[in-house]
Design brief:
It is built from 38 helices and 31 strands. By secondary structure, the chain is α+β, with helices and mostly antiparallel strands. It has a nine-stranded mixed beta sheet with strand order 12-31-30-29-13-25-28-27-26, sandwiched between helices. Strands 14, 15, 16, 19, 20, 21, 22, 23 and 24 form a nine-stranded mixed beta sheet that branches. A six-stranded antiparallel beta sheet has the order 3-2-4-11-5-9. 41% of the residues are buried. Keywords: ATP-binding, Cell membrane, Endoplasmic reticulum, Endosome, Lipid transport, Magnesium, Membrane, Metal-binding, Nucleotide-binding, Phosphoprotein, Translocase, Transmembrane, Transmembrane helix, Transport.
Length: 1114
């Protein structure tokens, strides 16, 4: 009977339908415990819901092969080689299908194994999650089942430190007040404790029998992925969250499996492609055009050659009658395809595999870097994607958050201002501090600070989660979701010697002192409705921009002046206000808020309207000031980035004065910087059009005078710039704004919403220069810009790990960005750009002699190289040296890169993959191919005999060309190597030795599985000839000479900054003072100093930097 009476109560208190809603709402009805409604109730509609299985894997056992092959052959290179392989199978081609099929099979197999292994790990994780035990309530008893068997409507018991198996409605708790504490680290990374409240009508159900007797239905909205705006969030426990400091709770499943909020947030991020990958695809298209041109030229020349009968049908090779009657166009098309097959090796399919291996293996160098490990937090760098390693070396714009990124997010209470009097802990400025709180406003101010927060007070020192002890002599600790709140409460405690703290009471529970309890509250809006000696107060705490417009009484001018002064000092400020409520007004307010909170439609708008109605006619009490100190080496990092030619923008939600003070402190703005303002206040005085044109003129004038200047813009002004004009266009204002920003050394964007941060990044990213952008932040409000930028970096900070989870890379501190870009990014780009150019170069060397050979064989599609050489050239003979080079090369030392940020400018704007460099490498390959072919041709133009009188044949000629080519391209890479280790020596000389040994075995044994033995004794016969040795040495020297001469001349006449550093390093090495080079690898990187001295803040009034003991790095 008690259960049936609660049935109509649970519905409106949990997730009821909106009374009075005219529009139909897509919702679901859940029957608690799967109990159907009694006869005569509303029509029972059976709804089907998914089970509780989580599937994050991509493949199954049955669809892995077809699905993986489909995805791989969507890549143009793989699809191209598949077509070539099929052509070789269908028509008579000069090369065996093995020459194309084996490399393609190798590439496809390696990629499939890699992707299959990664998906197997996902399957393993899914199974571990789906098979974990869960306690169900069935027939009044606890039953243990696997998580995947849980269904919507099941009642579940969760114990302390267990994870919620699905999204639950919180029914009851072991706590008397019906609350529980949870952490959501696996959802948003925040380790702070959050308090949830049981449904009012079920919080007294503490036993399995009571819960099993519950008859109720739940009406709720359909699943949606928003973690931060769930309907009835105080009753909803999300899957992935963990129960803390509560013995047990009971809940009913409302969303299961792939409908839980955690699963709905699995959606994949947009695929980011680096500038190097885009250049590779463009170069691939160029070489594809070259391939088609070669095939067309040879096809045409073949029929020109065969236009004379004695060439078309020589006496020893007469055509059959069917061949003579074959269609001319069909023959020409078949010959064209045959030439395509013959020259297809100019497209380096193995390059993609090598690039992926280089990126995957190279990403470990970041995670192994001990200098980027933070001992305080115990965190190291994380790599969430390895596809953008080289993009770290191409960054032109850095967009950074302020709080928690540039600053420590470690708050310290500095002062409070009440009625115009300033109070600081254990001191006084313009008024008394300690002693009796003689005025009601002071009493109310301190009570407001002690009530408007979500801090939990614990007596156990071993409590989970981040905590701060209010007094070293006491065992109680403060657990907070925000460091600001702990700082404020501790500051108030120091100001009033702990008196006010005891007035804090949990909702519905009486506390000490005159506070009888907190009737209601909203943790997100910092609203509290406390009851003091029979009177009801509304306390409101927030930013000055939110509080001042709602205030009608109080010493507004004095407090506003103090707030502005503290903002200039770089302090974070909050204002406190209140008003008294009569009981009737309080009941009306509660009803309005409750109706808005449980609305299924337009809930955000209704909540905003409710708060707007409540938060008015307030009385101003005072303001607080909290200091957020600058992070260690943040100023040095920004200074180094600016020297590297990178523009740094600060995007923050703070007020302009506070953000500007922080920018001066971190050296983003200097004393000589002239600040330009594009703010709402200025736009109100002038039109947006006039302000933009005035700033544009100022920018042009300052550019002529070589003046350093910065721009400050707020969120409202940005909205006006981004807003389309009446004629439907907004490009003029955007272009004008971009032109102003391009000429600024630094830009500060304040009062920015998260979406506006992403808009700023997108605006710069899509400008006509298409610069490479990087966004770095530590909070959930930074995720949008992190996802929007070319490279997103999350700081593993105090605001949770959501930014780190959604980023491409994560670092413990902002200072690690310096090494991430100037060292790792620089080296990654140098290595992979050499890899790409080298692959195209060695394939031109490989296939161009084949093209030249057709002019000497009557365009008969005769191959120059043996099938084994065609197959293994890119797979075995030349693959390992370039892979190792792309992993270990250091053209200058790590210390030099860190010491001289200007070297970063040498590789800016994809400098090593520009068309000029690409054409040089291509022509170098063509020159070397000409030397290989015609050098061997002219050396043996006359009939050359060996010591036993035999004549060199075409396979010997081809082997000679191939041998010279393998040695030349390998030695070319050796000449480009600046950083030698034993591994380099082993791989480079070992690959040459492997080629020689393979050729001796391949030509020294009669292989029974081959239908031909054309290579038998060819290589041995070649090496037995003295002239052949002379040709090999001479042609290798001639091939390498032009590149060496070019480097020497350019280094002497037009040296780059990097080459000048290399010359100095070489001289130092010869003088016995070589610059030490760090070895990559775990434990091999030397640690820097544990702490550097902090730079004092820039003072606007002082006009300069006070930095004792700090010297700029040359």
């Amino acid at each position: 009977e008690r259960g049936s009476e609660l049935s109509p109560l649970l519905t409106p208190l949990c997730f009821p339908q909106c009374a009075g809603e005219e529009n139909w709402v897509d919702s679901r009805t859940i029957y608690v415990g799967h109990r159907e409604p009694p006869p005569g109730a509303e029509a029972y509609i059976l709804q089907r819901h998914p089970d509780n299985r989580i599937v994050s894997s991509k493949y199954t056992f049955w669809n892995f092969i077809p699905k993986n092959l489909f995805e791989q052959f969507r890549r143009i290179a793989n699809f191209y080689f598949l077509i070539i392989f099929l052509v070789q199978l269908i028509i008579d081609t000069p090369t065996s299908p093995v020459t194309s099929g084996l490399p393609l099979f190798f590439v496809i197999t390696v990629t499939a194994i890699k992707q299959g292994y990664e998906d197997w790990l996902r399957h393993k994780a899914d199974n571990a999650m789906n098979q974990c035990p869960v306690h169900f309530i069935q027939h009044g008893k606890l039953v243990r089942k696997q998580s995947r068997r849980l269904r919507v409507g099941d009642i579940v018991m969760v114990k302390e430190d267990e994870t919620f198996p699905c999204d639950l409605i919180f029914l009851s708790s072991s706590r008397a007040d019906g609350t529980c504490h949870v952490t959501t680290a696996s959802l948003d990374g925040e380790s702070s404790h959050k308090t949830h409240y049981a449904v009012q009508d079920t919080k007294g159900f503490h036993t399995e029998e009571d819960i099993d007797g519950l008859h109720a239905t739940i009406e709720c909205e359909q699943p949606q992925p928003d973690l931060y705006k769930p309907l009835g969030s105080e009753n909803l426990l999300l899957r992935g969250a963990t129960l803390k400091n509560t013995e047990k709770i009971f809940g009913v499943a409302v969303y299961t499996g792939m409908e839980t909020k955690m699963a709905l947030n699995y959606q994949s991020k947009s695929q980011k492609r680096s500038a190097v990958e885009k250049s590779m695809n463009v170069f691939l298209i160029v070489y594809l055009c070259i391939l088609v041109s070669k095939a067309l030229i040879n096809t045409v020349l073949k029929y020109v050659w065969q236009s004379e009968p004695f060439r078309d049908e020589p006496w020893y090779n007469q055509k059959t009658e069917s061949e003579r009657q074959r269609n001319l166009f069909l023959r020409a098309f078949t010959d064209f395809l045959a030439f395509m097959v013959l020259f297809n090796y100019i497209i380096p399919v193995s390059m993609y595999v090598t690039v992926e291996m280089q990126k995957f293996l190279g990403s470990y160098f970041i995670t192994w870097d001990e200098e980027m490990f933070d001992e305080d937090s115990g965190e190291g760098p994380l790599v969430n994607t390895s596809d953008l390693n080289e993009e770290l070396g191409q960054v032109e714009y850095v967009f950074t958050d302020k709080t928690g990124t540039l600053t420590e997010n470690n708050m310290e209470f500095k002062e409070c201002c009440i009625e115009g009097h300033v109070y600081v802990p254990h001191a006084v400025c313009n008024g008394p501090v300690q002693g009796p709180l003689e005025t009601e406003d002071k009493e109310l101010f301190f009570r407001a600070l002690c009530l408007c927060h979500t801090i939990q007070v614990k007596d156990d020192d071993d409590v989970d989660g981040p905590r701060k002890s209010p007094d070293s002599g006491k065992s109680c600790v403060y657990i907070s979701s925000s460091p600001d709140e702990v700082a404020l409460v501790e500051g108030v405690q120091r100001c009033v010697s702990g008196r006010v703290w005891h007035a804090r009471a949990r909702p519905g529970v009486s506390g000490g002192g005159p506070c009888a309890g907190t009737l209601a509250g909203d943790p997100f809006k910092h609203l509290r409705f406390p009851l003091f000696t029979g009177e009801i107060y509304l306390f409101c705490k927030g930013a000055d921009s939110s509080i001042f417009p709602r205030v009608i009484e109080g010493k507004v001018d004095q407090i506003r002046a103090r707030v502005e002064r503290n903002a200039v000092e770089g302090l974070r400020t909050l204002c406190v206000a209140y008003k008294r409520l009569v009981p009737e007004e309080y009941e009306s307010v509660c009803a309005l808020l409750q109706a808005a909170k449980v609305a299924l439609q337009d809930r955000e708008r209704k909540l905003a309207e409710a708060y707007e109605h409540i938060e008015k006619d307030l009385i101003l009490l005072g303001a607080t000031a909290v200091e957020d100190r600058l992070q260690e080496k943040a100023a040095d990092t920004i200074e180094a980035l600016q020297k590297a030619g990178i523009k740094v923008w600060v995007l923050t939600g703070d007020k302009m004065e506070t953000a500007a003070a922080t920018c001066y402190a971190c050296r983003l703005f200097r004393r000589s910087t002239q600040l330009l303002e594009l703010t709402t206040k200025r736009i109100e005085e002038q039109s947006l059009h006039d302000v933009l044109f005035e700033l544009s003129k100022t920018v042009l004038r300052l550019s002529a005078d070589m003046q350093d200047y910065g721009l400050i813009i707020d969120g409202a002004a940005l909205s006006l710039i981004m807003k389309p004009r009446e004629d439907g266009s907004c490009g003029n204002y955007r272009e004008l704004f971009l032109e102003i920003c391009r000429n600024c050394s630094a830009v500060l964007c304040c009062r920015m919403a998260p979406l506006q941060k992403a808009q700023i990044v997108k605006l710069i990213k899509l400008s006509k220069e298409h610069p490479i952008t990087l966004a770095i932040g530590d909070g959930a409000n930074d995720v949008s810009m992190i996802l929007e930028a070319h490279v997103g970096i999350g700081v593993i900070g105090k605001e949770g790990r959501q930014a780190a989870r959604n980023s491409d890379y994560a670092v413990p501190k902002f200072k690690h960005l310096k090494k991430m870009l100037l060292v790792h990014g620089h080296l990654y780009y140098i290595r992979i750009s050499e890899l790409v150019q080298y692959f195209f170069y060695k394939n031109v060397c490989f296939i161009f002699p084949q093209f030249l050979y057709q002019f000497f064989c009557g365009f008969s599609q005769q191959t120059l190289y043996d099938t084994a050489y065609l197959t293994l050239y890119n797979i075995s003979f030349t693959s390992l040296p370039i892979l190792l080079y792309s992993l270990m090369e250091q053209h200058v030392s790590i210390d030099t890169l860190r010491r001289d940020p200007s070297l970063y400018r040498d590789i800016a704007k994809n400098a090593l993959l520009r068309w000029r460099v690409f054409v040089y490498w291509t022509f170098l390959g063509v020159f070397d191919a000409l030397v290989f072919f015609f050098g061997a041709y002219f050396m043996f133009e006359n009939t050359t005999v060996t010591s036993n009188g035999q004549i060199f044949g075409n396979w010997t000629f081809g082997t000679l060309v191939f041998t010279v080519m393998v040695f030349t391209v390998t030695l070319k890479l050796a000449l480009d190597t600046h950083y030698w280790t034993w591994i380099n020596h082993f791989v480079i000389w070992g690959s040459l030795l492997f080629y020689v040994v393979f050729s001796l075995l391949w030509g020294g044994i009669i292989w029974p599985f081959l239908s031909y033995q054309r290579m038998y004794y060819v290589f041995i016969q070649l090496l037995s000839s003295g002239p052949a040795w002379l040709v090999i040495v001479l042609l290798i020297t001639v091939s390498l000479l032009p590149d060496v001469l070019k480097k020497v001349v350019c280094r002497q006449l037009w040296p780059s900054a990097t080459e000048r550093v290399q010359v100095r390093a070489g001289r130092g090495s010869r003088a016995g003072g070589a610059v030490p080079r760090a070895q990559w690898g775990r434990g091999a990187l030397s640690r820097g100093p544990s702490r550097s001295r902090r730079c004092d803040r820039w003072k606007e009034s002082g006009g300069g930097v006070v930095s004792p003991g700090i010297t700029a790095e040359a």
